[in-house]
Amino acid sequence: MKKNNLPGIALFVYNRPNHLIKTLKSLKKNHQASKFEIFIFCDGPKKNLHIKKIKQVQKIAKNVKFFSKNKIYVRKKNIGLAKSILNGVSTVLKKKNSVIVLEDDIVTNNHYLKYMTDALNFFENDKLIGSVTGYSYTDVPKNYSKDIFLSQRHASWGWGTWKNVWEKMQWEKKWAKRQLKSKDFKKNFNKSGNDMHQILKEQLEGKSDTLDIMFNLNCFKMNLFCVCPKKSLLYNIGLDGSGIHCKKGDKVFSNYSNYFRVKKFEKLKVETNIIKKIHKSFTTPIPLRIYNKIKNYLI
């Protein structure tokens, strides 16, 4: 890995000191981690009862020593995850051509940073690619020989992108609302998963606070795909009830491998069977949909 080709690491933290320690510990074990620059973005307190742990997080962040540079951004007021990521990624991409985006609940294997760097360098000028991730959405078919594949759905866990892609993004709600009204939008947008249209609606109605659905919308409009490894190089430790967006008991696909590394990068094409498989994994079975409707009605 050439030093001048290294992406910046943008790490977003809030009030989970124990999770942050595990995230940083896993990054430290990555090959040549000391050559990377890390930018840590600390959001302000949403509630007064969060202040104590937020201060613990800030102390941990300020004492990070093993990267080549460590830049800390501390907010006095809470702006939420979506704005924090939007502002943070934009800040890093003013200094770097590419960025690796992590939150404080992602633990990686030792090959993650090398994989992300190599992927960002290899696919930088590929007109089909909008992002790369260390997360795998599905097990690929046995006859699929490559170490990586394309997903129409872009991941929010351990992902990365480029300045030239980011600068084309539109974040205005008015623009997004216009897309909702376009012909066959729901049908086509939901090819990434039947939950996509609903997630977007909730974001635009202020019921959720996540930037990844807007990133997905932009990539959908530009017909850009996400590069995924066939085995996950990371896993989420925030499914314990400590997070805002991932709830305790949430079931997510994981084929994490502590040892997997991508040995070869090569030009990719869209594999329809993999796209359909990912879509199916985000499709709620009819009996469960009926149960949820009855449950919501009674509540």
Per CATH, the superfamily is Spore Coat Polysaccharide Biosynthesis Protein SpsA, Chain A
What class, by secondary structure content? alpha/beta
Question: Taking strands numbered 1, 2, ... along the chain, how are they ordered across the largest sheet?
Answer: 3-2-1-4-8-6-9-7
**What is the N-to-C order of secondary-structure elements (H for helix, E for strand)?**
EHEHEHEEHEEEHHHHHEEHH
What is the tally of helical segments? 11
- CATH topology call: Spore Coat Polysaccharide Biosynthesis Protein SpsA, Chain A
**Tell me about the biggest sheet?**
8 strands, mixed
Features:
single chain; 299 residues; alpha/beta; Spore Coat Polysaccharide Biosynthesis Protein SpsA, Chain A; 8-stranded mixed sheet; two-stranded antiparallel sheet; 11 helices; disordered C terminus
Helices and strands in order:
Blueprint: E1 8-13, H1 17-28, E2 37-42, H2 51-62, E3 69-74, H3 80-92, E4 98-103, E5 106-108, H4 112-122, E6 129-133, E7 148-151, E8 159-162, H5 163-166, H6 173-180, H7 185-189, H8 196-204, H9 212-222, E9 225-229, E10 234-236, H10 272-281, H11 286-298
Parallel strand pairs: 1-2, 1-4, 2-3, 6-9
Antiparallel strand pairs: 4-8, 5-10, 6-8, 7-9
